[in-house]
Design brief:
Layout (H helix, E strand, L loop, with lengths): L10 E9 L2 E9 L25 H18 L7 E5 L12 H10 L4 E5 L7 H11 L8 E8 L3 H8 L5 H14 L2 E8 L6 H15 L5 E6 L7 H7 L8 H10 L4 E2 L18 H14 L2 H8 L5 H11 L10
Parallel strand pairs: 2-3, 3-4, 4-5, 5-6, 6-7, 7-8
Antiparallel strand pairs: 1-2
Helix pairs in contact: 1-2, 2-3, 3-5, 6-8, 8-10, 9-10
Bound molecules: iron/sulfur cluster and zinc ion.
Length: 328
């Protein structure tokens, strides 16, 4: 059921996405929800975007009103894919009342949906009915669960991110998703807090290799410094620098499969950046590559002659790992 009341989601926009060698018109929606129930990752500020202590019924009203706004604003004929985010997990019943899932599945019937969620909320009981309503036979896989795995390394995920789940949990969730007929998209985080540039690059290479067998799509997110986060606390004290765009390019070139990447805040101090001179061209190139999959473009970008490349090579060679005392 879609509400008569209109209420804007946190954000929504139209764009293009690459899917199985095809470019699809895509609608992205970020619904304001009850908020992430984990709410403890060191780099995340999305979790602050939530309705405060609303009852389940009120929350459902808000969400239905946002869906009504989306259906009113965007002509369904003009997009084939929908990416759904909340301020946490779309399939978390505490954050998004289950009745809303049915509304979304009917509203976007026939679309290819990618919905973000933590792994513990991926269950056949939830995905089964969702897919049944969503699927009109247009897509072999009508739903993808997008999971912020961040890294395949449990120690890094625990100490540097505080994500609260293990690689095995992701693998199990991927199994459940596939059994239910859904696909899996993994988000990997380049350069979490406390890692040197080289450690971050090595971690991403390992994560690619470990994750590919379980995920149908991989997206690499170069870390950005969001407001009101623990990451920002360290960044303000000079204890964190977002990754170099050179690292991003090197990893895209080395990835064994096509990895998409949208460097949010690219070229800015809080986002992945180089020196300020070469950033614009590289950020644009990375976005183009995500859509085209043209590896030659990445090769050409890596060949750009800019003085900061030497600086990056120096950092890779000389930056020392973050040293925490082993004893108190
Ligand atoms: S990154 Fe995801 S799981 Fe972690 S606090 Fe933010 S919304 Fe919650
Ligand atoms: Zn440069």
């Amino acid at each position: 059921m879609i509400s008569d009341r209109l209420e804007k989601p946190l954000a929504s926009w139209r764009g293009n996405e690459r899917y199985e060698n095809e470019l699809l018109e895509c609608l992205t929606v970020i619904f304001k929800s009850g908020g992430c129930t984990w709410s403890a990752c060191r780099m995340c500020s999305y979790r602050h975007e939530r309705y405060q202590a609303e009852s389940c019924d009120l929350l459902l009203d808000h969400l239905r009103a946002q869906l009504a706004w989306v259906m009113n604003e965007y002509d369904p004929k003009e997009y084939r894919m929908v990416k759904i985010f909340t301020s946490g997990s779309f399939f978390d019943p505490q954050e998004v009342p289950p009745a809303f899932l049915a509304d979304v599945a009917s509203a976007f019937r026939g679309k290819l949906v990618i919905a973000e969620t933590r792994p513990e909320f991926v269950t056949e009981e939830v995905l089964g009915p969702f897919i049944e309503t969503l699927d009109d036979g247009s897509w072999k896989i009508p739903l993808y669960c997008a999971i912020g795995l961040e890294t395949s390394n449990d120690t890094i995920r625990e100490k540097c991110i505080n994500k609260g789940f293990a690689f095995q949990d992701f693998r199990d969730a991927a199994g459940r998703a596939h059994t239910a007929g859904a696909g899996v998209k993994a988000y990997l985080l380049l350069k979490p807090l406390f890692l040197s540039e080289r450690e971050a690059v090595e971690d991403m290479k390992t994560s690619f290799a470990d994750t590919i067998p379980f995920a149908d799509m991989i997206s690499m997110n170069p870390c950005t410094v969001q407001r009101n986060t623990e990451l920002e606390y360290y960044w303000k004290r000079g204890a964190y620098r977002p990754p170099y765009l050179w690292s991003v390019l090197t990893l895209l070139a080395a990835a064994p499969v096509h990895v998409t990447c949208d460097p949010l805040g690219g070229g800015q101090k809080r986002g992945p950046h180089n020196c300020g001179t070469c950033d614009y061209e590289i950020v644009k190139g990375i976005r183009d590559y995500s859509l085209s999959g043209d590896r030659d473009l990445i090769g050409a970008l890596l060949d750009i002659a800019c003085g900061c490349k030497q600086e990056w090579e120096f950092v890779l060679a000389k930056e020392k790992p973050y040293c925490m005392p082993l004893t108190r």
